[in-house]
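Here is the promised in-class demo. Please do not try to memorize the tokens; focus on the logic of going from shape to residues.
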């Protein structure tokens, strides 16, 4: 069944609702629940992918040279 056909079946039911009492209803809950499940699945997938990452931070090439020069220079000056 297409979405437009489903909506044509729902529209007559909307006329029965009280105009002063508007709630999201079952459809609103289903949309919210679907979004929540989607976010949960995305977070689960992200955690799985982040667990596979093998990241070792390498020192910057210039930082090692500067540290060696700084250490040897400090002892030479004293």
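The designed amino acids, position by position:
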């Amino acid at each position: 069944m297409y979405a437009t056909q489903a909506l044509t079946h729902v529209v007559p039911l909307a006329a029965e609702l009280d105009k002063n009492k508007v709630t999201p209803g079952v459809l609103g809950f289903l949309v919210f629940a679907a979004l929540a499940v989607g976010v949960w699945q995305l977070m689960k997938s992200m955690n799985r992918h982040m667990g596979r990452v093998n990241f070792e931070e390498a020192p910057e090439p210039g930082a090692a040279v500067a540290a060696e020069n700084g250490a040897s220079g400090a002892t030479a000056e004293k």
